[in-house]
Amino acid sequence: MKTHKVGIIMNGVTGRMGTNQHLMRSIVEIIKQGGVWVNPEETIMPIPILVGRNETKLKELSARSGIERWTTDLDSVMADPEFSIYFDAQSTLRRADAVKAAATAGKHVYCEKPTAVDTQTAIDLHNFCVDKGVKSGVVQDKLWLPGLVKLKRAIEKGYLGRIFSVTGDFGYWVFEGDTIPAQRPSWNYRKEDGGGMMIDMLCHWRYVLDNLFGPVKAVSCRGATHIKQRIDESGNPYACTADDAAYSMFEIEGPHGEIVVNFNSSWCTRVRRDDLLTLHVDGELGSAVAGLRDCHIQHYANTPKPIWNPDIDQPIDFYKDWSEVPNQEVYDNAFKVQWEMYLKHVVLDTPFRWTLLEGAKGVQLAELGLQSWEERKWLEVPDL
User: Fold this and answer.
1) Mean pLDDT of 258-263
2) Residue 47 to residue 8: CA distance in whole angstroms
3) Quick one: 2-140+334-355 is in which CATH superfamily?
4) For 269-274, which contacts have Cβ atoms below 8 Å and span 24 or more sequence positions?
5) Which of 3.30.360.10, 3.40.50.1980, 3.40.50.20, 3.40.50.620 would CATH assign to domain 142-329+364-375?
6) Which residues contact 129 (CB under 8 A, 6 or more apart)?
7) Torsion angle of alpha carbons 155, 157, 160, 164, nearest 10°?
8) Which of 52, 93, 201, 310 has the most CB within a 10 Å radius?
9) Number of neighbouring beta carbons within 10 Å of residue 29
10) 171 pairs with which residues across the strands?
11) What distance in Å separates the CA atoms of residue 250 and residue 262, rounded to the nearest whole number?
């Protein structure tokens, strides 16, 4: 058995997303399963080291994860040839300098999104890695969620026919932190610290829309800061300076014509729908509603014929004529799926198109969304 050992610098994994998705549910699980399977005689084994600024948190995370190696000295591991990959899950404003330092040290780069808070910096990061000759990747996890995988296959098989509209709903109520602890870090709600709904979630919606339906060509967005004050991790009140909701429209160049998208994203909404994220897709031959794990479809032949009559109780049960797409395979954690693909890309040079340039496209859409809000108009999305 041939085992490729790959050292990974995991910077910023003491945060919520870094700990849960990237470390515990991805890298630790890959180690437990014996590495990334290549063929019956070959595997790839990640060898991680945990890096951060808080020694106490690193010790606790080391004990919890079983990853023994950790350090607060990022420079020392950057200089260590044992580690060929640098992973960044820090807060957004710290990312650009760290990625450049890693590429300069000859490390391949894999990082969370957004890769920056402005398009030019995001493009520069991509070009910098290309110039240094290192491979880059950006996390685009939602592409491997079971619900979206099922939706994509329904589209590819022609079940919906020509798609003409998509309605997206994302979000939930994030508590302010005074009586009930907040579920998200306080920096998310401070613009000066890189926070905001648009810079966070429009980066996601760019790759979701591009990959499922076609390239986004125009955007109109209205943001809002609905909650003006929250409580931080130390129990102190702070002013919310970033948008906590975004109400967006996108124009997509679909394979069979224009697709109109309405997408609401809010941390100030109470959920009464199938999931925290749903995509309702309408086409000539059928419709689909996908959540994080499930997807329901309704074909033309199963479509009921409603009659508008507000004077009687609705006689149609609009849920019963939808069919749930069955689980046709085992769906692994979406972050872990992409980690395995990236490790194969680094070791075996297999195709991997989710580079820092794809990350820059997400930043571009977020920046245009903010500009659209400020200027109160539609904006074209130029090619990068």
Assistant:
1) 98
2) 6
3) NAD(P)-binding Rossmann-like Domain (3.40.50.720)
4) 269/171, 269/172, 269/173, 269/245, 270/172, 270/173, 271/171, 271/172, 271/173, 273/169
5) 3.30.360.10
6) 99, 103, 109, 135, 136, 355, 356
7) 50
8) 201
9) 15
10) 266
11) 7
Residues 6+ apart with CB under 8 A from 175: 181, 182, 183
In the three-class reduction of DSSP (H, G, I as helix; E, B as strand; rest coil), residue 148 is classed as: helix
DSSP for 212-257 reads HT--EEEEEEEEE----EEE-TTS-EEE--S-SEEEEEEEEEETTE
Rounded percentage of the chain residues whose pLDDT exceeds 90:
98
Q: Return the DSSP state at 173.
A: B
Q: Across all residues in the chain, what is the average pLDDT?
A: 97
Largest Cα–Cα separation, the chain: 74
Q: CA 28 to CA 55: how far, in whole Å?
A: 20
Residue type for position 345? H
Q: The tokens of 214 are what?
A: 């076609």
Interval 117-167: pLDDT, tens: 899 999 999 999 999 999 999 999 999 999 999 999 999 999 999 999 999
Measured between alpha carbons, how far is 30 from 339 in angstroms, rounded to an integer? 9
Query: Looking at the chain, how many residues does it have?
Result: 384
> What kind and span of H or E run contains 44?
strand 42-51
- Which among 305, 302, 307 is positioned nearest to 322, based on CA atoms? 302
Which of 223, 241, 132 has the alpha carbon at shortest distance from 186?
241
